[in-house]
């Protein structure tokens, strides 16, 4: 089975995310997406990957990270995943960043920390609970394992950090194998969206 794996959730100028093509359980091509503007090249990167793999009919399955993470990266990658799924008739699966990390049996109990704007953290716990706030307000049990691109914001010396800022694409793939197929992906935001409709309402439709 041909699988396209997308991760556009990572926040930051250094590493926005990843695109990979799998055949069976083997990663054949992995393309890291570098820089804040890398979302603009998502579609062309997938197109190039399909060409190099000889996937004229596209993938059979698409697995995408749904968040939490970068607003723009999530919107772009999930919209692309939805469109490719519709166009090629591919099965569609969404997984959170924490689910991806915990696909590694050694990290099954890790707490995933994602850096958010304004020096805040998103925490995703193994039991499915989520939290958002300032790093100093996050209560973690002694000996807890933490992972993700927000671990450097935790100064508690009784916590065990794992130096893995984003999940390997093989973990994203593994997590996707156990996720249910869906008809469309929704980005996972812990915070409420900041965008609000205009005070005067939306503009009327143009007159033809």
Question: How would you portray this structure in words?
Answer:
This protein has helices at residues 42-53, 71-88, 97-101, 169-177; strands spanning 2-7, 17-23, 26-33, 61-67, 91-96, 111-116, 120-124, 130-133, 145-147, 160-162, 181-182. The chain is α/β, with parallel strands linked by helices and 208 residues long. The strands form 2 sheets. The protein has a 6-stranded mixed β-sheet, sandwiched between helices. Strands 8-7-6-9-10 form a 5-stranded mixed β-sheet. α2 (71-88) links the parallel β4 and β5.
Average predicted local confidence, pLDDT: 90
The radius of gyration is: 18 Å
Strand content: 25-35%
Q: Report the major sheet.
A: 6 strands, mixed
| Strand runs, count | 11
Q: How many helical elements?
A: 4
- SSE order, as H and E? EEEHEHEHEEEEEHE
Poorly predicted residue ranges: none
Tell me the distance between the termini.
Answer: 48 Å
Inertia-based shape: globular
Strand order of the largest sheet: 3-2-1-4-5-11
How much helix, percentage-wise, in residues?
10-25%
Question: Helices and strands: which structural class?
Answer: alpha/beta
């Amino acid at each position: 089975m041909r699988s396209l794996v997308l991760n556009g959730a990572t926040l930051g100028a250094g590493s926005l995310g990843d695109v990979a093509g799998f055949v069976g359980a083997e990663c054949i091509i992995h393309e890291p997406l570098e820089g804040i503007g890398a979302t603009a090249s998502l579609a062309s990167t997938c197109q190039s990957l399909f060409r190099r793999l000889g996937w004229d009919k596209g993938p059979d399955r698409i697995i995408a990270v749904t968040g939490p993470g970068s607003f723009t990266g999530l919107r772009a990658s999930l919209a692309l995943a939805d469109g490719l799924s519709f166009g090629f008739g591919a099965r569609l699966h969404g997984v959170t960043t924490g689910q991806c990390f915990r696909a590694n049996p050694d990290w099954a109990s890790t707490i995933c920390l994602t850096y958010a704007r304004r020096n805040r953290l998103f925490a995703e716990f193994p039991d499915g609970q989520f939290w958002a706030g300032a790093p100093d307000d996050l209560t973690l049990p002694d000996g807890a394992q933490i992972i993700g691109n927000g671990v450097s914001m935790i100064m508690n010396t009784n916590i065990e950090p794992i130096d893995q800022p984003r999940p390997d694409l093989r973990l994203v793939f593994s997590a996707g194998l156990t996720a249910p197929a869906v008809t469309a992906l929704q980005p996972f935001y812990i915070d409420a969206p900041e965008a609000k409709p205009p005070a005067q309402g939306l503009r009327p439709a143009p007159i033809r």
